[in-house]
Design a protein that fits this description.
Blueprint: E1 3-4, E2 10-15, E3 18-19, H1 22-27, E4 33-40, E5 52-58, E6 63-74, E7 79-90, E8 93-106, E9 113-118, E10 123-151, E11 154-178, E12 185-209, E13 212-233, E14 237-258, E15 263-282, E16 286-305, E17 308-323, E18 326-328
Parallel strand pairs: 2-5
Antiparallel strand pairs: 1-2, 2-3, 4-5, 6-7, 7-8, 8-10, 9-10, 10-11, 11-12, 12-13, 13-14, 14-15, 15-16, 16-17, 17-18
Length: about 325
């Protein structure tokens, strides 16, 4: 879902002061919405510096909850999606279970086009025409979240999720012609891909009193991608196989001091790191290792007045990258 202001500016969506994901919005129970608040340049640090925010206030369960199931099927183009969202509470804790999936089976894919290359010695025209093709894709998402959000001065959320995207078949068949230089040649292009990821996200907010508050968030993700691309003609065959493993970790912590409804001092500390290894096989064989680390600290002041806002900050940032053992800072 996308929400914009009257002037076309994007607005961030929150539910009970927490950033709302697509799964949160799809699983929202309209009967639980108590009110919806729109804010320009909100000073509350729980809005994470958003210039425009829409905040849904929903019913807070002490016990019980609800389950919501939605599904959509497109029979003419063979695609569909389904989602299950379940929320239940026990005393001060709320738990959310999210499960969704979709598929797309397209029996007619491919593109046709003409490319012109003007060289000093001649002009070459390449014409390609797709004659047949098919594409199949399936994806799955599941997540479990635990939240404590009963006190306006303290809240936290932790979510563990898994997502998978699988493309078992993506094939195109056709012909290629290069002006009158060569006779038409048939070709086939195929692709298979699988992606698996496990992630953990955590959010924390603490109001310390006298205008002081702390925000924190942590993200971790482990990712695996496997792809196999091929291109075959009457005279050659090209195979590219890639196996990627990647890990990502990031932490952000921010201290806020509210001087008034319009002026806030802040100090932020951020750090992130990721590393990946990609092994290539097929027509060419090689292995590449990538690494990137980042750290930053800065402080500043944010102010707003009526329909205008701005901020100024200063700090220090450090970034380090490495490719196959070669380091750059």
């Amino acid at each position: 879902a996308t929400v914009k202001t009257a002037s076309g500016q994007p607005a961030s969506i929150f539910i009970n002061f927490h950033p709302a994901s697509p799964q949160d919005l799809a699983g929202l129970n309209p009967a639980d919405v108590r009110k919806v608040e729109y804010l320009d340049f909100p000073s509350d640090p729980r809005f994470l510096g958003a210039k425009h925010a829409v905040n849904f206030f929903t019913r807070q369960y002490m016990y019980g909850g609800y389950t919501k199931l939605s599904a959509k099927e497109r029979f003419l183009i063979s695609s569909g999606e389904a989602a299950l969202y379940s929320k239940f509470a026990h005393r001060s804790m709320e738990y959310d279970v999210m499960l969704s999936g979709d598929y797309d089976y397209n029996r007619h894919i491919g593109t046709s086009g003409t490319e012109t290359y003007r060289l000093p010695s001649a002009t070459v025209v390449r014409e390609s025409a797709a004659e047949a093709g098919k594409h199949r894709e399936r994806s799955l998402y599941c997540g479990v979240r635990a939240s404590w959000n009963k006190d306006p001065g303290f809240s936290f959320r932790n979510i563990i999720s898994y997502r998978r995207k699988h493309t078992p078949v993506s094939e195109t068949y056709g012909s290629v012609t290069f002006t009158d230089l060569y006779p038409p040649q048939g070709f086939s292009a195929g692709s298979q891909a699988t992606s698996n990821a496990i992630s953990w996200n955590s959010e924390l907010y603490i109001a310390l009193g006298k205008g002081w508050s702390l925000n924190g968030s942590t993200q971790f993700e482990a990712l695996e991608n496997d792809t196999h691309d091929s291109y075959t003609t009457e005279t050659q065959n090209i195979d590219n196989i890639a196996d990627e493993h990647a890990v990502y970790l990031r932490g952000d912590f921010r201290a806020n001091k509210s001087l008034s409804d319009n002026i806030t001092l802040f100090a932020t500390l951020s750090a992130a790191g990721n590393g990946s290894s990609i092994e290539y096989a097929g027509t060419s064989n090689t292995t590449n290792h990538f690494r990137q680390n980042f750290a930053a600290c800065y402080a500043g002041v944010a102010a707003s007045y009526r329909k205008a806002s701005g901020s100024i900050d200063a700090g220090y940032a450090f970034e380090s990258t490495g490719i196959n053992g070669r380091k750059t800072d």
